[in-house]
Amino acid sequence: MATTADFRNGLCIMHNGDLFTIAEFQHVKPGKGPAFVRTKLKNVKTGRILTNTFTSGVKIDIQRVERRQYQYLYNEGDIYHFMNSENYEQTFIDKSLIPAPDLLKEGQEVTIAYHGETDSPILCEMPAYVVLEVTYTEPGDRGNTATNTFKDATVETNTTVKVPLFINEGDKIKVDTRTGNYSERVKS
């Protein structure tokens, strides 16, 4: 068991039966009363931020989290298949652990975090941006870059993304995996 003196950003702890990582913390020593630690905790499974105050010196339960590199292979319904990049072992995780499963394409590199004690996957971290090819969209207007108007485009993972009017079929675009929004056109 550790205490609040061991807090650092990114530390994974068990709090109220759930896994949390410490996003921010601040030791506070008021002039009157005991010292305390003000924290912002991020739930590992849901991503929600929780603010909490710990009395200084209280015992905390530190959890070990391992991150491993995997390559996306394919999916069967809600089960997604990944291959370990080092030893070629395959693993299967549920769709609910992936933040943007509709933006995964074959061969995509991801990081899967495992709970150290149970060796069970707790979340899949995707890269911030993925490059996808546009497979279908209405014809673009050349030179129409001044307006902030968007149209629907289907990308190679069969997902619809809003793109500017000048994007055409065959163009490669960068998509933000956190929001699912178009970021920029990629030059070949």
Model description:
There is one protein chain. By secondary structure, the protein is an all-beta fold. It is 0% helix and 54% strand. The protein has strands at 2-3, 12-15, 18-28, 36-43, 49-55, 59-62, 65-76, 79-84, 90-94, 109-115, 121-125, 129-137, 150-155, 160-164, 172-176, 182-186. The strands form 3 sheets. Strands 1-6-2-3-4-5 form a 6-stranded antiparallel sheet, with no helix packed on it. Strands 9-8-7-10-11 form a 5-stranded antiparallel sheet, with no helix packed on it. A 5-stranded antiparallel sheet has the order 14-13-12-15-16, with no helix packed on it. The termini are far apart. The mean pLDDT is 88.
H and E string: EEEEEEEEEEEEEEEE
Q: Tell me the structural class.
A: mainly beta
Helical proportion, percent range: under 10%
Residue fraction in strands: over 45%
**What is the distance, rounded to the nearest whole angstrom, between the alpha carbons of the first and last residues?**
53 Å
The number of E-state strands comes to 16
Question: What is the CATH C level class of the largest domain, in words?
Answer: Mainly Beta
Question: Main sheet, how many strands, which sense, barrel?
Answer: 6 strands, antiparallel
